[in-house]
Amino acid sequence: MDLLTMEFFRRALIGGALIAASGPLLGLFLVLRRLSMIGDTLSHVSVAGVAAGYLLGLGSPAAGGMAAALLASLAVERLRRAYKTYAELSIAILMAGGIALASLLFSLDRGFGVNITSYLFGSIYTLNDADLTAIAAVTAVVLAAVALQYKEWFLMTFDEDAAAVGGLPVRALNLGMSVLTALVIGVSIKIVGALLVSALLTIPAACGLLAARSFRQSALLAVGVAEAAMLAGLLAAGFWNLAPGATVVLLLIAVLLATLIFRRRPRL
Amino acid sequence: MTTGAGPADAGCHQPVIELEDVSFAYERRPVIEHLNFTVRERDFALLTGPNGAGKTTLLKLIVGLLEPDAGEIRLFGEPARRFRRRERIGYVPQKSAFNPLFPATVREVVLSGLYGRHRLFRRLTKEDYRRAEDAMHALGIADLAGKRIGMLSGGQQQRVFLARALVNNPGLLILDEPTVGIDAETQESFYHLIRHMHRHHNITFLMVSHDRDRLGDYLEGEPAAVAGRLKFYVRHSHDRTDCGETDLTHSLRAYRREADEPALVR
Prior knowledge:
The complex is a heterodimer.
Chain A: H1 7-32, H2 38-55, H3 61-82, H4 87-108, H5 116-121, H6 129-158, H7 160-165, H8 170-192, H9 197-211, H10 215-240, H11 244-262
Chain B: E1 15-26, E2 29-40, E3 43-48, H1 55-62, E4 70-75, E5 78-79, E6 89-92, H2 106-111, H3 126-138, H4 154-166, E7 172-176, H5 184-200, E8 204-208, E9 225-227, E10 230-236, H6 252-259
Parallel strand pairs in B: 3-8, 6-7, 7-8
Antiparallel strand pairs in B: 1-2, 1-4, 3-10, 4-5, 9-10
């Protein structure tokens, strides 16, 4: 297939495979901590950051997006603590604010040369060396963090009170998780787009929750499902000329439905 | 507000939890006022009071998650906020505190009892894994090790959390409303196990519960301390204790042997 010999397509596959490892891994912790929507929030805010990056004439608008996602993740963490029982309220407000700000900023200047839709829906075929380096670096950091702090993240996610009683630095761990989430979303936007980024974080995790017995198994399953859907989706999209991000996300949903239908009956 | 202090027969037993004139308020609403109380080694302390009386707040103060507005709290003789030897505290949460759909096996949950600050950035050792197996065996849940926690009965889940709390061989075991939502028969066997552990092991207990009915005669009739609507009841395990107490079996191995006698753990 000559698709695979094309440089832009190989870059897409590499970028996709990298983000399909780090995104779902982090996503599993986020979903279990009832922060499923954080992906949406951060990605919407980061589109506003991208727009601001263009307006301010930054060399790399993506850096603007990354910075905005980081700021938003700190805000979410702060609000989550301030309004413990209304965590989703802060998320909803930030999400709406982010997308409104993004639209406004994009409408200020029509000379961007870049359509807002490429950030909303992704533009995986335009990954350059800098993008790939950023994706690889973020993936390496996420994998290293999970490898080093698997125990602590597990306990924080399963029972935050027990983690605190055990003397874990709960605040620092929460902060670290938020920052990593922002980084993953910052680099994922170019691949699947802001509107679909949280699907990559949450749907593989949802499959893992349904089918796996242990936590370790659900993490492996989430990554496996995401990798398979990413590679199959990109190939299908390239072959039939479909929107790549949307194809990947729809494949993920198909896998989730199949898991729901065919999963083993729970046994005692 | 406060009547009485710790038990008079303190003798040679070191204080484990010391509350000295502790006050705490949320915003301007006082929750705890001038509370004095001491729990000593091998005491079984029960903290009761109606909902909203400040039980959970006091528990958070004791484990150092909150700081009192006035007064001082010490754990094993050190200020609670700066207490570092966290592995000495075993903690059993309220049943409702965990998500039943969480994808974790019994073994993973029990192991997580070892994930405190003293093992931060360290890999678990073979010895750690063995301790987890011992704890599960001691509580009669070894055959459930590979099952998902959410699929167990309430009583089994309770034992999983107890095994998690015991895996560090703690000196202080804190139980936060451990029997809420658990049927009467299972509660009975749970308390049987707890009483047994108190009598035969060098563990100090602090249990929070909204009623004291289940423990019945085990605790002395009158509260040892009262502060507002909070009441402390205490029992010391006199029967086997003298100041030497070196012969006390304090290891999970011992629990394990006991668990093999079916009469003790149903």
